Amino acid sequence: MGAWLRDKLPQHVDVAPFLAEARFVYGDGRAVRGDDPYRPHTFVWFHRDLRPEVEVPGDLVVVHRDERIVVVDKPAFLATIPRGQHVQQSVVVRLRNDLGLPELSPLHRLDRVTSGLLLLATERRWRGPYQTMFEHGTVRKTYRALAPWRPDLPLPVTVRNHIHKTRGEWRAEVVPDARVNAETLVEVESRLGDLAVYRLTPRTGRTHQLRVHLDGLGIPIEGDPLYPVVRETSIDDFSRPLQLLASELDFVDPVDGTRRTFVSERQLPLLPASAESTSVSR
Q1: pTM of the model
Q2: 126 and 159 both lie in a single domain
Q3: Is a pLDDT exceeding 80 seen at residue 129?
Q4: 275/254 Cα distance (integer angstroms)
């Protein structure tokens, strides 16, 4: 088993000390020994050492909390779920610890660099009814973006195309002549000199949809590290937030039938936050 682990994991962990410290275990919890006979079709478990995480600045505001749901207004750069190099610095981990809700889970996703409203279920038993809303498209989500002003662009306009993102690739792409799977209504709300605030109403939820659609219109969102070109930045660089805000959520509660409307208090342009302001606000 030691030889197999050294063959499989040399780029992920230093196998020898992990074996010596009994950090590899079988499914029943017994430590894996380096001289154990090779056992095919066997799961081996271990925890990688995580890098120290820089605390993401900005307030994570609890907009609403009841028995079934929590609505938060998240800052840019805070991941929704623990993933890759962002574990402690994620909405789910922060709030599970702070609110004492070990089963708290998101009902939809926001990109790490996107700010604004996120809906979560307090317990597993509530996930089904609320996730069904998103699957059926009955949640009205409104975003606002700060992007270049184009007087020649006829607005409002509905962008409809096919967006595809390959797993592992940073950017999504538009596939010409493919079946439409992404649709966004784009309206101008106000002008700020050479920039404008655009109101975005997505009718689908493809990865990077709003960023791709505005880039396709020739008005890429300010602060976007991927569109129109990839901009190399450190994951701990919080100086230039993406100017995209998930500003409104509106739906009929699937459990009690009441109308629910939530509005972010954040305003564009979004300014960089200092580390000293980091907190969870209720």
Answers
A1: 0.82
A2: yes
A3: yes
A4: 38
